[in-house]
Amino acid sequence: MRRRVFTTALLAVAALAACGGGPETRAITAEGVERENPPGAPVANLQPGLAAFGHALFTAAAKPQANTVLSPLSIAYAYGMARAGADEATGAELDRVFGFPPEGPHSAFNTLSRVVTTTDGPPPVPDRGTPRDAQESEAAPPVVSLAGGLFVQDGLSVRQEFLRVLAAKYGAGARQVDFAGDAADAINAWAEQRTAGRIKEVFDRLDPETRLVIVNTLYLKADWAVPFTDPPERDAVFTRGDGTAVRTDLMRQEGEFRYASGPGGQAVELPYAGGELAMWILLPEPGGAPGDRLAPAAVAEVGRELKKTRVKVAMPRWDFSTGLDLEQPLAALGLRGAGYSGIADGLLLGRAVHKANIAVDEWGTEAAAVTGLAFLQSAPPPAEAELRADRPFAFAIVHRPTLVPLFVGQVADPAAAG
Q1: I need a surface site. Which of 69, 217, 377, 395 has the fewest CB within 10 A?
Q2: Is residue 154 a contact partner of residue 176, using CB atoms and an 8 Å limit?
Q3: Which residue ranges does the record assign to the Serpin domain (predicted)?
Q4: Would you say 409 and 394 are in contact if contact means Cβ atoms under 8 Å apart?
Q5: What pLDDT does residue 223 have?
Q6: What pTM did the predictor assign?
Q7: What span, in angstroms and rounded, lies between the C-alpha atoms of 185 and 347?
């Protein structure tokens, strides 16, 4: 496929659907609650919503001529944790935007994390600088890590039911930090460890009035089942969407792959070692928009049409990142509520960020994503009345259900004793 332009799209989540160092922190958890390990809620309940949300967010956030990588799973997982403490109106918006199932997302996310992850702890840091030999290198088993973190201002009273859900469904306890101090450093260090060093910063800084932060990390390191060992096509032409051209090398290989072609374009499935993960390369027709190939209907069609075919594959290496303030694109999708009083009194979502990066070469893929949600605490509403007991008053201690008085009396002189 000499000089054929391959427009690439991220596909870890779509393909899946188809088939602490740093400053010290003190942990708090829901007392006596361990992570549940039930037979499992059906992950299929999450897939349609995640596919639709991923495409909608991509459409709202991606710039036509810019490289883009997003993780719908990371964003939805973080907001799924927050859903456990959302007020009624905000919860309804979360359900619509993310397509959470009617029974809620928590059990399904618990099942999904057990299905896709390969490690409960931080992923190992790979040796990224060592050259590999095609004749001597064997594909390593994939590494997938999905983790949730909760960071709480020391002294904030977090509701036990919220802590219970996070412990039972997400395996997450809370770490107490000081947001007027080094909390951002602690959060960034945790995320760096959980992404094997690929993402070093979630927040550049945090408002000192922040009271709670939810963080999700997603990390993937996977070798191709068959590496690209054919000699690359040097100095090939890659035609950008605006018609301009850039020179790049194209990795090449020929073999039996699942392949589909039709009016919308072409697709090939590149499996990773182990067989459970794959990347789909979705090439639209000339002049077509790559994002259209991520639409749920298009993805479903590709899944139906892929068939074993002898294919010559040529595509570039890539290594890039995307940073996104989530507030505007999610508001455009209908998420405007910010009330999370089920986490703590008066808690409001003040900031939401997402960062992702991906590197693809002849040997495989390494990718990471982080989503951070920072919450502030609103001031209490103004008093509707005032009672100033600066003159003699009566008191009564009553049993509320029956209104039986246990004690009654008056305060005539608070300075008198005896």
Answers
A1: 395
A2: yes
A3: 55-414
A4: yes
A5: 95
A6: 0.86
A7: 22
